[in-house]
UniProtKB/TrEMBL annotation:
<feature type="signal peptide">
    <location>
        <begin position="1"/>
        <end position="22"/>
    </location>
</feature>
<dbReference type="Pfam" id="PF08205">
    <property type="entry name" value="C2-set_2"/>
</dbReference>
<dbReference type="InterPro" id="IPR013783">
    <property type="entry name" value="Ig-like_fold"/>
</dbReference>
<feature type="region of interest" description="Disordered">
    <location>
        <begin position="249"/>
        <end position="279"/>
    </location>
</feature>
<feature type="domain" description="Ig-like">
    <location>
        <begin position="31"/>
        <end position="117"/>
    </location>
</feature>
<keyword id="KW-0732">Signal</keyword>
<keyword id="KW-1015">Disulfide bond</keyword>
<dbReference type="InterPro" id="IPR013162">
    <property type="entry name" value="CD80_C2-set"/>
</dbReference>
<dbReference type="InterPro" id="IPR036179">
    <property type="entry name" value="Ig-like_dom_sf"/>
</dbReference>
<protein>
    <recommendedName>
        <fullName>Ig-like domain-containing protein</fullName>
    </recommendedName>
</protein>
<dbReference type="InterPro" id="IPR007110">
    <property type="entry name" value="Ig-like_dom"/>
</dbReference>
<feature type="domain" description="Ig-like">
    <location>
        <begin position="131"/>
        <end position="230"/>
    </location>
</feature>
Amino acid sequence: MHSTVYYVGAFVLSLTLLQASGLDTMVGLYGETIEVACNKGVAPPANLFVKWKYDKDDGTSGDLLVKKKDSTSILAADDYANRVNITDRYSLLIAQANLGDQKTFTCMVVTESDVLTSRVNLLVHKKPSPPTITEKAEDLENGKLTTLGKCVAKDANPAANVSWTRNGQPLADDGKTVIITPVTEVDQETGLSTTTSTLQYTASRDDMAAKFACSAQHSLGPDQETAPMSFSIHYPTEKVSLQVNTQGPLKEGDNVTLKCKGDGNPPPPAMTSTSRARK
């Protein structure tokens, strides 16, 4: 199937306006077959000659194909030779679109009385793979800045934006208790971008039940979010309680078990002592 395309600019219905050589912009999807309309899709005149060409990176022009009546000739001698075709309405088809196709394409329509030219700047976008969290911390220490994990959104164009949430609320970098470091790397072969966001977080006892997640935002939407994750928070004992284990009222000579417990995490070893009751 052909990918959905979006045009920037008004849709021109009058053939008299087609002689303008303004530059439109459209977006196609990476890996799909992109259809680039000739003269913005307006029905072409009969008995015409159509030629498609493109602007090369070095500034020169490259020929793609020509169509006259029912005959089509592929002129491209490069990568486009096996990837381009033309529709009955003279739209250019580009199969297996990649970032190398982000160029300006020109459609020339030759009629008995005029030459109509239209130019389209093609952008190729790709949504990132669903984000994943790597290098997840095993636990967090109360009051200590710790790397919670890295959120990775792979292979996008343009690069995805990655954000973090705590209990569904956005986390903001304050440079002290929350530090978020994004890094974008471009694959030299495909040109696609991978965004990695590292979250350093200072946990407190209140974070024992907190749910952390990251999401990737992209122009192709909707946002993609990881499953929420929680952490064990280590914190020292602040309160100590003493429990007395007895059966019935105490009297002199009875054995009494005393147990000392703290509220830290992980819980400190319980200390138990048995003694005889005295007056």
